[in-house]
Amino acid sequence: MNITCGTDIIEINRIQKMMKDTGSQGANKIYTKNEIEYCESKHNVKYQHYAVRFAAKEAIFKAISNNLENKFDISWKDVEILNDKNGRPKVNFIGSKVKGIKSIEISLSHCKEYAVANVVAVWEE
Questions:
Q1: Is 110 one of the catalytic residues?
Q2: Is 62 a catalytic residue?
Q3: What count of other Cβ atoms lies within 10 Å of the Cβ of residue 120?
Q4: Domains of the chain by range and CATH?
């Protein structure tokens, strides 16, 4: 069994500045429509939710990059972070560029200043 992991932490104000500087154009390069709708629904704390999803995508890239044929075949929007019916985060891969993952677990956390994500991927043999 092959298990890989990835972790990322980011300052929330960095994402907030990027979003304010680039507007919807910046958001549309990184986040899916569903992610944007979810984050925008959080109103006053939306940047915490954007930032934790950015950290999650970075952590996922770290966890899967060694198992990709070409690291540049996957983009920000090929990975979508949503919540299940119980509010637990889950990963959706858009398209078929990521192959061979048996399961992927993700943990997200954020506070006023930082957002962090941890990912564990279990690969098929």
A1: yes
A2: yes
A3: 16
A4: 2-123 (3.90.470.20)
